[in-house]
Amino acid sequence: MTTSRGPGHNSGQAGSHSQSEAAYLRAQRVVPGGSMRAASWFKPHPPYAARGEGCWLIDVDGRRMLDCANNFFSLIHGHAFPPVLDAIQNTMSKGTAFGLPTEAEILLAEALAARNPQLEQTRFCNSGTEAVLAAVKGARGLTSRERIAKFEGCYHGAYDWVEVSLDPSPANWNDADGNPASIAYNQGAPASVLTETVVLPFADAQRCADILRREGPTLAAIILDPHPSRAGAVPISSDVVEVIQAACRRDGIMLIVDEVISFRLSHAGASPVFKLKPDLVTTAKIIGGGLPIGAVSGSAERMSVFNHANGKPRVSTGGTFSANPLSMAAGLASLAHYDEAAVSRLNALGDELRAKTRAGLSASGVQAYLSGMGSLFRLHLGTKQVVDYRSAYADEQTAENLRSIHRGMLDEGIILTPNCSGALSTPMTAQEVDLLATTLVRVVARVVGTAAAR
Ligand SMILES: Cc1ncc(COP(=O)(O)O)c(C=O)c1O
What we know:
Elements: H1 19-30, E1 49-53, E2 56-59, E3 64-67, H2 70-73, H3 82-92, H4 103-115, E4 121-125, H5 128-143, E5 147-151, H6 160-163, H7 192-196, E6 197-200, H8 205-215, E7 219-224, H9 238-251, E8 254-258, E9 280-284, E10 294-298, H10 300-303, H11 325-337, H12 340-363, E11 368-373, E12 376-381, H13 389-392, H14 396-411, E13 414-415, E14 421-423, H15 430-448
Parallel strand pairs: 3-13, 5-6, 5-7, 7-8, 8-9
Antiparallel strand pairs: 1-2, 2-3, 4-10, 9-10, 11-12, 12-14
Helix pairs in contact: 3-11, 4-11, 8-9, 12-15, 14-15
The structure holds pyridoxal-5'-phosphate.
Pyridoxal-5'-phosphate (PLP) binds at residues 72, 127-129, 132, 155-157, 225, 258, 260-261, 284, 294.
């Protein structure tokens, strides 16, 4: 693996007349917006990927870039990790999917349960969105209630109920009582979505407690990502955790902990880190080793809501490619190599990245902050302390600066997500972390200016 080589400048950047531009022009004819995923699109167009090697991605123009987006944090071992490729190849040669169960699904469910007893039983599906959808349905089935609560600005997949108040602005984010308003994300979403989704403030324990005292008895579930990337990439406070757990106990609400990204924070996932006692846990991304996956897990008692063995299940889940053997085998290989030692090493590298970047920003008098935890990070501009979606909210000028930084990093050969967040992967070393930190400080200083220049 060639992890130590820096970004290559051996061919043209994704500019005019590049292969990427040609691909984008073709795509516009057959794909709305010229790209399959809004989240991975940015102006004028993204570079098109050709292949990956460890933490490096090579685009169709031959540019070699340090990949800190890792297909939205799903590739914990980077690209083309040999043990995952071997597992896929071995499995693939025997067939790719069957209308019968395979042993591979038992092995991956056992691997999750071995890491955290809270994941005693599991149902696999093909994405985090599907996992969240199943968990919400499960919670409704367990409680015979329809409404759910979620935290403002947090992403849980592309499903109308959990997309409520995903991107409110200062113009619409308060309701008449000063609580977070329920704002629809998609045009045409049923109006009932808004009354059926209660929005909670991520960093205000008192307000959460007040809202939950009023709404709690009607709620099937509270869905919570304890370290939500879209809402700032900051950890939930222990005060809010206490309020949530108390409301769940008092009113019989199911707590769904969405660990689709945050599972990577410890060997046992995110819930133990934040002392959360979930009824259901959703995972995806790294548990699939780079192949499509999602999972809903919980105690045998909670998961019995999906049990079909005695006739019609209380709540149905399923899917033609659910628990397909390729995703199972890739996930198993990926998790086996993300052992305690690998988790600790990667989390320590993340600490190093944040320390180096913060020191560099402060030494050059740049008003910016790198938030995050473990191997996850996100850049914020300005001096506001980031504690939730609202404090992380970028006004128009800030959003424009973040776009320029994202673009500037790409020009320097480093891929971040378009909102300037990222994740480390196990092929990275102190060398890549140093490259990332120094490049980030330089690009941010160039875009927003240093104290000396102000
Ligand atoms: C916390 C969280 N939940 C759910 C999802 C949806 O997962 P997927 O993209 O696999 O549908 C995501 C995706 O980024 C996520 O970050």
